[in-house]
Amino acid sequence: MADKAMTKILIFGGNGFLGGETVVELLALNTFDITVVNRGNWKNYDSNIRIRPFVKAFNIDRESSTAVEQLHSAIGNEHFDAVIDFSAYDTDVVKDALKVLEDKIKLYIYISTDSVYEVCLPSNNDLASETDSIRPLDNDEYERFRRKDSYGHKKLKIEEVLFRRQSKSNNNWSYVILRLPDVLGPRDSTDRWWFYQMWIQFYSSIQKPLETSTQLRSSYVYVNDVARYITYILSKTFLDSSTIFHNQIFNIGCTEIISIQDLLTLIIDELNLNSLHIPIQYNPNTEVDFFPSVTRGGINISKALSNEFNWKPTPIKQVVRETIQWYNDAYGLYPNDRSDIVKRIRRTLLKNNESAYGKFLYEVNQYATQSTIKRKRVEEKKIVAVDSLTVNSDHGDYRQEKLFKHSDM
Question: What DSSP state is assigned to residue 349?
Fold first, then answer.
C-alpha cells in the first residue's frame, strides 16, 4: 500500500517565537512537508538545531524590491496545501505573496493580533469579539486610531486585503485568521518574560520594586497552545477533509483575564518567593512596560472554545509554571541570551549602581552553574545501567558485561 502523500506547508517565518514552536509541533506528526521562507536568521535560542535541519529553507527578505522574483525562483511551480504567515506586518508583503501563491494554495493562515481592536470603534462589550473589528467611518477618527496604534492598523489592513482577495479570487483558496493577545512561553524572542522572571528571582540583589503602568485586565495566550491549534486546523482541513475552518476569524487566548500585577504575582507564587514581600508599584512612566500591549482589555474566545472549533487553552497557572521551568533551564543552556537579559537589567534597573550589579551578576552566574549541574544529573538518571544481564538461549547461558539503555532526551 502506497504511503499517503505529505501535506505541504509553506511558512513565512518559522524560525522565531511562534513560528518555531509551530514548526516543531508539525514536524512531530510526520505528516507535513515544511518549507520556510525567512531572512535566514536562525539565532533564536536553539532554532538552528531544533528546526533548521528538518525543513527546506529559503532566505528571502519580504521587504525587498525583488521579493516576488525571489519567491518565484525559490518555489517554481510547486503547489502547497497551506501557507502560514507569521511575518507579515505590511500589506505589500501579503500582496506579493499572493501574486506568487494564489493559484498554488488551498488555505492561508494569517497570524494577527488583538491590537486590531485598538483601531476599531469601541465596543459595548467587556471583551472584544471577532465581530467588533469595525473601523470608524469618520476620517479624522480613523486617522486618530491609526496614529495611536500603527501596529494594529497594519495588521487589520492585512486582514482586509485577505478578505478582498479571497472574495474576488478565481482560485479556490480560503483563509483562517488567528487574533492573538500577548504571547507567553519559552523562547520569547522579545525577552520580556525572562526579564520579569530574572528581576523577581534576583530581587534580593536588584532591590528595585516591580513596576506596572496600568491596572488593565487583558488576555494572554500560550505559545504551545497556538502551535497545537494551528496543527489542529491543518489536520482537520487536510487529514479529515473538513471545511469548518474556511474563511474564519478567531480570537484565541487563555480563559483567564488578568492584570500585569496578577501575572507578576503568579510568577512570584510559582517561584515560591512570597516571603520576600516583593513590592509591585504603579508607575505610569515605567521603563519596563512590556505587558499588556493593548489598552482596551481582554478578548472574547467563546467562538474558538465552542465544540465546533475545539480551542483548548492551557490554564494560566500551568502556563506560568511551564514557562518558568523552561527559563530556569535556560540559565545554563543559553549563556548568550542570559547575558543579554543581564545587560538589559543593568541598563534599565541598576544603571550606575555597580555594587548591586556585581552582586546580581555573581548570583545569576551561580544560579546558571547550579542549573547546569542539576540538568546534567537529571539526564544521567535517564541512563539505566544494567551491570549484568543473563540471557537464556539454546546455546546455554551467557553474561553480557554491561548494557546501557538511553531514553529520549
Answer: I
